Amino acid sequence: MIEKIMASLESLPTEDLLIIRKNLDELIRSKYDDDLGKRKGQRAKVKISGNLEIEREKEFFYKLHKIFIREMSINGLVFSVKGTVIDGDILRVSFRVPSTGEKKIIDCQAVRVKEIKPGTIPEYEVAAVAVSKEAVKNYQDMLRKRGL
Asked: What's the pTM value of the predicted model, to 2 decimals?
């Protein structure tokens, strides 16, 4: 079937092929998102400052990093931090809800780390997804056992 479709497309002009390609890209993207259950909507844009603890660093020293949360969703967030975050790190983010002043603490795992300002103290944009207490405990156990 694909061979028949390709044979019929060979006779079309380039302009028509480009239009077909654009339509196919949109079709593939929509089917891909539906099949894999990707989020359709965007994260909420916010401007919240908070603190970050990196679980990997707690083994050597306790340090809070100041963060600026840019986007939030039900199960994740995007923030910028001046500190070294590695893909897969377990993080503890704490902040106060602007409307109520209630303190929130979220355990999450970095899934995408992008350096936005290189230098001696680089700034990173981190996308993180919320994880359970069990995942945090498993990560802590892995850190303890890695030197054995």
From this structure: 0.65
